[in-house]
Amino acid sequence: MEKILSKWESLSAWSSVLRFLDINLRSIGQVMFQNNPLTGLLFLAAIAWGSYAACVPQVAIAGVVAVVVANLTAQWLHVDTEALHAGLYGFNGILVGLALATFLAPGPLLWVYVILGGAVSVVVMLGTTNVVKPWGGALTFPFVLTTWLLLLATYGFSGLAGAALPTGNIVTAFQPYQGNPLQLIDLVQGVFLSISQVFLKASSIAALLLLVGLAVSSLSAAAFALGGAILAVLTAHLFGAESDLITGGLLGFSPVLTAIALGTVFYQPKWRVVAYTIVATVFTVIVQSALNVALTPFAIPALTAPFVLVTWIFLLPRRCFEPTSIGAGDAATAGTT
Amino acid sequence: MEKILSKWESLSAWSSVLRFLDINLRSIGQVMFQNNPLTGLLFLAAIAWGSYAACVPQVAIAGVVAVVVANLTAQWLHVDTEALHAGLYGFNGILVGLALATFLAPGPLLWVYVILGGAVSVVVMLGTTNVVKPWGGALTFPFVLTTWLLLLATYGFSGLAGAALPTGNIVTAFQPYQGNPLQLIDLVQGVFLSISQVFLKASSIAALLLLVGLAVSSLSAAAFALGGAILAVLTAHLFGAESDLITGGLLGFSPVLTAIALGTVFYQPKWRVVAYTIVATVFTVIVQSALNVALTPFAIPALTAPFVLVTWIFLLPRRCFEPTSIGAGDAATAGTT
Amino acid sequence: MEKILSKWESLSAWSSVLRFLDINLRSIGQVMFQNNPLTGLLFLAAIAWGSYAACVPQVAIAGVVAVVVANLTAQWLHVDTEALHAGLYGFNGILVGLALATFLAPGPLLWVYVILGGAVSVVVMLGTTNVVKPWGGALTFPFVLTTWLLLLATYGFSGLAGAALPTGNIVTAFQPYQGNPLQLIDLVQGVFLSISQVFLKASSIAALLLLVGLAVSSLSAAAFALGGAILAVLTAHLFGAESDLITGGLLGFSPVLTAIALGTVFYQPKWRVVAYTIVATVFTVIVQSALNVALTPFAIPALTAPFVLVTWIFLLPRRCFEPTSIGAGDAATAGTT
Fold first, then answer.
1. Closest residue in chain B to residue C125, using alpha carbons only
2. What are the tens digits of pLDDT across the range B31-46?
3. In principle, which of C1, C53, C64, C214 could form an S-S bond with C222, CB 3.0–4.6 Å?
4. How many Å is the maximal CA-CA distance in chain A?
5. C69 lies in a domain?
6. Which residues of B are less than 8 Å from A319 in CB distance?
C-alpha cells in the first residue's frame, strides 16, 4: 500500500494533470478527514455505486463537477499550496454538488447552481478558516452554508424546483410512536446507512466501500466511524426517534463525523478523549433531531450542520486536552495551525 | 455576616466535601453574578419554595442534580481552579436543570436529559468564554444554547414530551388589547415576578428571598435588580404588551439581569453608566418581545436569550467606558480578564 | 466642485453647527460608502423626493431624526472623532429611521422607536466594528439587527402596528410563473428601482439623484452601482424570480451595495477583483431570494442583510487580494485598519 502511494506521489509530482487528479481524489477523502488519494478513489466508487443504484447518475456527476470547479477556483484565488494539495479546498465542493443534485430536479439551471456553488464554497472555506483558525477547522460549514442559501433561494425561483426537499411546516408535538418495534436487522441497516449518508447515499454497499476507504488510510478512523454509527443508532432508539429516520441513517451521519473528528483528528486518542467523544457523539444525535425540528418551517434539510455545531462546541475548550501533534499525513487539521 | 463567611471559608478550605458544597452554593449565586455562598443558599431557598408552592418538587431537584453534574464535569475537564471555586462553571447547569424540568414532563429520560444537559453546559461555557474573553463574559449563553437544543430535539423524540412548551405558530399581527386596564397591584406583582422568573418561578415570596440574597452580597445589585424590574414593567406597559405577560414577570426577568450586569458587574456605577444601563434595560424589554415572536414557529421559549444578546451588544463597545477593576470578590467577571 | 467642498470644509471647521450638519450629510453619503457632504445632500434630496412622491413625508422626517439622534449618541459615547466626522456613526441611523417609518404605522410610539433605534444603532455599530475590524467593516449590519429586533417586537405590542410588513407564512414551493414575459422597459425600471431601494424608495427620479450623488464623489462607485443593478436584474430574470420583485428593485438593492463595496471600497479595481465582484453580485441575488424565503415565517423584511452576509463572506478571505491603501477620503474603511 505504502509503495503504491509513494509511486503515485512521484508520478503526481511529475505531471500537472496527475497532480490535479490527485488533489481531487484527496478532496473526496477529506470529507472524512483522510488526506489519501486511494481513500478518495474508494469514496468515489461508493458515490458512483450509490448514485447508480438509486438511478440518479446526475448526482455523482454533479459531485465531480463541483469538486473540480472548487479546486480550479482555489487555484485562481492563489490559496496556500500545501492545503490545496491536501484536498482541503475541495471537500466542501463535492458535498455541495451531491446535495444540490440530490434535492433539486435536473435541468440546465441546476448545473449553473453546481458550478456557482462549487466556486462559492471555496470563498466560504477561506473565510471560515480565518475565523476558526485559533481553535479548530472549518469542517463542513462551507458546504452547509452554501447549500442552505442555494436551496432556500429556489423557493423564490421558478427556474429551479425541489425534487426531494422536505415540506415546510410549523413545529408540532411528536406523533406517538405507532410502528412495529425495531428488529436487530433494522438497527444493523441503520448503522450502515449512517455511514453512507455522509455522502447522502442510502446504500450498504457504499457504506462498506467507505469503511474500506477509511481503513486503508487509518484503522482508527474506520473504528471511530463504525463505533459512532452504532452509538448514534442506539441513542436515537433510546430516545424514541422515528424508526424510518433511524433505519435510513438520517440521525447517524453527523454523529459518525463527530466521532471521527474528535476521536482521531483533533485530539490524541486517550481514555479521557474517548469519553469526551462519546458524550459529543450522543449529543450530536440530539442536535440532529433539534436542527431537523428547527429547520421544519424553512423546508430545508439539516445537512451536516449538527456535526459542525457539536464539533465546534467540543473543540472550543481545546486547552483542557493536549492537541494532537499535526503531521504531514494529517492535513485535515492544517487549518488549525 | 463577614465573620460567618470567613469562618465558612476556612471550614471549606479544610474539607473537600464542604468545598464542593461551597462551589455549588456559589454557582447558584452566580446566576445573578454573586460569588457568595450565603446568597446561593437564599437563592436555593427561593427555588425550593417556588417549586414546592407550584407542586413541582422535581424542578428544584433537577436544578440541584444539574448543578452538581456541571461542577463534577468541570473538575473532570481540569478547568481553572479559581473560576471553578467561584461557581462560574455551575450557574448555567442549575438553569438547564430548572428549565428542562419546568418545560418537559417527568419520566426517566428527563433525568438522562438533566445529567447530559448539566455536563454539556460546562463544555459550552468553556468554549463561549474563549470566544468572548476579549470583551465580556459568557453570561447565560451556555444555558440558553444547551436548553434550546435539548428542547427542540424533544419534538423528534417520542420518549420525551413537553409539559409547558409554547405552541408553534407562524407570526401574526398582535390581537387588539381587550383586557381590563392594569391596576397598580398588577404592576407590583409584575415587578416581583420579573425577579423570581430569573429562576423560572412565579412567586413573590421567592422574589423576596432573591432580593435578600442579593442584598447580603451587594446592596447595589439588589437596587439595580429592583430598578430594572420596575423599568421593565413600565416599558412593557407603555408599548401595550399583553397584560398576562407583564403581570407574570415574563417580560421582566431578562431586563433584571441586564440591569445587574451592566449597572454593577461590568461597568463602574457612574451617571453615564446608569443612563447607558437604562437604555439597555428598556431595549431588553423590546428584544424579549422580539425573541418571543421570533421563536413562535419553533415552539420553544426565549429563556434568557434577550439578556445575553442585549448585554453582549452593550458590552462590546467597552472602550467607551472605563471597565471595573476586577477584585477577588467579583469573580463573575473572571472570564473577562 | 473641489473648490466648493474645500470652502465648505473650512466653514465647518469654524462653526460647530455647520460641522454637525456636515457630519449628518456625510452620514447619509456613507450609506453608499461616500464620505462627501455634497453626495449626502443629493442622497437626502432623493429620500425627500421619494417620500414626497409616495405621500409618506414622515419617512424622510424619521430618517433625519434618527441620523441626528445617532450622531448625538455617538458624541455622548465619546467615539473616535475622525470616524464620527466621516459620518460612520450615522449611516445606520438614517436607515433605521427610514425603515421603521416605512414598515410601521404612524403614531407617537413610532417616534419613541425612531429615537431609541437611532441611539441603539450606534452601540451596535461600535460593537460590530470591534468584532469585524481584522478583516472588514460593520457595513449595514447595525441597521439590519436593530431594525429586525424593533420590527419583530411590534408583533407583541398593541401600541405599534405594521403598515407594510410582509405576511407571515411557512415556506412553500414557488407558484409557477404565470405573468406576461418581462419587457425591456420593465428591466430598465428594475435597474433604476434597484438603486433607489437602497434607501427603501421606489422612484426612478430618486435613483437618478442617487447616481448623480455617487458620481460627484466617485465615478467608479456610480459605474459599479449601475453595473451591479443591471447584473442583478438579469440574474434574477435568468433564475425566474417573481417579476414584481424584479421590476420593483427588490432583488437588486443588496447586489448594488455588494458591487460598490467589493469593487471600489475594500479592494483595488483590477480584472481579478472585477471577476470576484461579479461572482459576489450574482450570489447576492441568490442570497436575497434565500433570506426573503427564510424570513417568511417571521413576517419581517430581509433589509440589506443579503449585502452584509455576502460582502462579509467575500471579504473574509482578504489575504488573497491586495487590500486598498486607505486614504483620508475613503473613510468607509476606517473600521478596517
1. B317
2. 999 999 999 999 999 9
3. C214
4. 62
5. yes
6. 130
C299 and C196 assigned to the same domain: yes
Contact flag C289-A158 (C-beta cutoff 8 Å): no
Task: Kindly determine whether residue C293 and residue A169, on different chains, have CB atoms separated by under 8 Å.
Answer: no
Q: Which of B134, B154, B174 is the last residue of a domain?
A: B154
User: Within a domain: residue A67?
Assistant: yes
Average pLDDT, rounded, for chain B: 90
Q: Are residues C304 and C242 in the same domain?
A: yes
Interchain pair C318, A130: CB under 8 A: yes
Q: Given an 8 Å threshold on Cβ–Cβ distance, is B297 in contact with A292?
A: no
CB nearest A156 (choices: C135, C289, C313)? C289
Burial B119-146 (b: 16+ CB within 10 A, else e): bbbbbbbbbbbbebeebbbbbbbbbbbb
Subunit contact A293:B149, Cβ cutoff 8 A: no
Identify whether residues C221 and C324 lie together within a single domain: yes
Question: Do residues C254 and C113 share a domain?
Answer: no
Nearest to residue B168, comparing CAs of B297, B301, B303?
B297
**pLDDT tens, residue by residue, B272-321:** 899 999 999 999 999 999 999 999 999 999 999 999 999 999 998 875 44
Best of C131, C133, C171 to disrupt the A interface (most A CBs within 10 Å) is C171
CB A201 within 8 A of CB A331: no
One domain for residues B274 and B144: no
Contact list in B for residue C155 (CB cut-off 8 A) is: 171-174, 289, 293
Three-class secondary structure assignment of chain A: CHHHHHHHHHHHHHCHHHHHHHHHHHHHHHHHCCCCHHHHHHHHHHHHHHHHHCCCHHHHHHHHHHHHHHHHHHHHCCCCHHHHHCCCCCHHHHHHHHHHHHHECCCHHHHHHHHHHHHHHHHHHHHHHHHHCCCCCCCCHHHHHHHHHHHHHHCCECCCCECCCCCCCCCCCCCCCCCCCCCHHHHHHHHHHHHHHHHCCCCHHHHHHHHHHHHHHCHHHHHHHHHHHHHHHHHHHHCCECHHHHHCCCCCHHHHHHHHHHHHHCECCCHHHHHHHHHHHHHHHHHHHHHHHHCHHHCCCCCCHHHHHHHHHHHCCHHHCCECCCCCCCHHHHHHC
Question: Nearest by CB to A131, which of C177, C297, C316?
Answer: C316
Model-level pTM? 0.93
In a domain, C3, yes or no: no
How many structural domains are present in chain C? 2
The residue ranges of chain C whose pLDDT is under 70 are 174-181, 319-337
Residue B333 pLDDT level (bands cut at 50, 70, 90): very low
- Neighbouring chains of A at 3+ CB pairs within 8 Å? B, C
Residues 122 through 161 of chain B touching chain A, CB cutoff 8 Å: 123-124, 126-128, 130-131, 148-161
Q: What would the pLDDT profile of A238-260 be if each residue is shown by its tens digit?
A: 999 999 999 999 999 999 999 99
Cβ-based neighbour number of residue C177 at 10 Å: 13
CATH assignment of the domain containing A34: 1.10.3430.10
Q: Are B190 and B328 in the same domain?
A: yes
**Do A80 and A137 belong to one domain?**
yes
CB A198 within 8 A of CB A257: yes
Write out chain B residues lying below 8 Å of A282, CB-based. 116
Query: Contact C64/C94 with Cβ under 8 angstroms?
Result: yes
Question: In chain B, which residues have their Cβ closer than 8 Å to the Cβ of C128?
Answer: 316
For residue C165, being part of any structural domain is answered with no
**For residues B209 and B335, is the Cβ–Cβ distance under 8 A?**
no
Contact A320 B77 (CB under 8 A): yes
* C197 close contact with B: CB closer than 8 A: no
Domain carrying residue A315: 184-336
